Amino acid sequence: MTSHRSRPGQDAAFAVILAAMLAAYNNLAGRQRWHEEWYPVVNLGATGVALAAAAASGLTAADLGLRPDRLAAGLRSAGPPAAALAAGWLALAAVPATRPVLGDQRVTGLSWPEAAYQAAVRIPVGTVLWEETAFRGVLQAALYRVLPRPAAMVLTSAVFGVWHIRPTVHALRINQVATGRRAGLGPVTAAVAGTAAAGLLLSALRERSGSLAAPVLLHLTANCGATLAARSAAGWNIRRAHIVARSIR
Hints:
The protein has about 250 residues and is mainly alpha-helical. It has one domain. The chain is built from ten helices and no strands. α6 (about 110-145) runs antiparallel to α7. The radius of gyration is 20 Å and the shape is globular. The relative contact order is 0.16. The model is unreliable at about 240-245 (pLDDT under 50).
């Protein structure tokens, strides 16, 4: 149960301000060069600020899904879907016919050391830890104090979708999926809606397990798995092209 003191006005203000700040953060700070260059460090600092703000607002470790005794339950809850997702990434990368699905230009041009850095540092610290703490941890708990739990989960997921507008536009441009504003509106809207739906699944895992470990594990598998699968597929395609080129000489 979420701890709740008799201060509904302050609780509502905290939730509204937090939601607005998160909706803006990734779409504004993410545009800055310093944010890109210091991504894990900046977002690790933002994680600390979010936790400090949560504590000051009266949220406890239990409210945030950080109770140590719920860790095992969180890992058990996310284990099967994470394993299925990892198997899916492996299958996509291993089968030549499905490798084009993984052709993300943000990843395929990386060296293996660069891809390893993404999967071991940038994504876990700069993306997953920060986003799960901010959304399924602090925001979801803050909204639980002022809204019914299903509504709080839906709103958390909607803000999570808005958070991804700028990264989606960036990805579409790099991959040359959409170049003009009107041409990109449909793909961006679809991607944001899909991200919000994924956020709802992560919120449900957090709710069911009582632990932030559940959405963290699945989020890690999704993002790190996508990076490693895309880099693997690119490497296999290059080797296959070399083999074909040698065979026709």
